Amino acid sequence: MLRPQDGAALGPALSARERDCLAHLASGLRTQQIADRLAIKPVTVEMHIRNAREKLGANTREQALAKAISRGLLTL
């Protein structure tokens, strides 16, 4: 599973929850599965992923993951 990084990155900082949701998304989990693991509602997972996409300047979840990895926000 990809792990969230605590280090500084380029652009607006992602919240810990945004990084958590992206890390679970990168490991192949679906929205409901992420919600179950984090004990939050699926709509909240979607909100965190959407906020992360906006902060990263990504149009899709896949782009957000690629940008987060390239900026060092997620590591293997």
From TrEMBL:
Pfam families: GerE (PF00196)
Taxonomy, superkingdom: Bacteria
PROSITE patterns linked to this entry: HTH_LUXR_1, HTH_LUXR_2
Gene3D superfamilies found in the cross-reference section: Winged helix-like DNA-binding domain superfamily/Winged helix DNA-binding domain (1.10.10.10)
Keyword terms of this UniProt record: DNA-binding, Transcription, Transcription regulation
Single GO BP term: regulation of DNA-templated transcription
Domain HTH luxR-type: 7-72
InterPro entries xrefs: Sig_transdc_resp-reg_C-effctor (IPR016032), Tscrpt_reg_LuxR_C (IPR000792), WH-like_DNA-bd_sf (IPR036388)
One annotated GO molecular function: DNA binding
The protein's name: HTH luxR-type domain-containing protein
Lineage: Bacteria, Pseudomonadati, Pseudomonadota, Alphaproteobacteria, Hyphomicrobiales
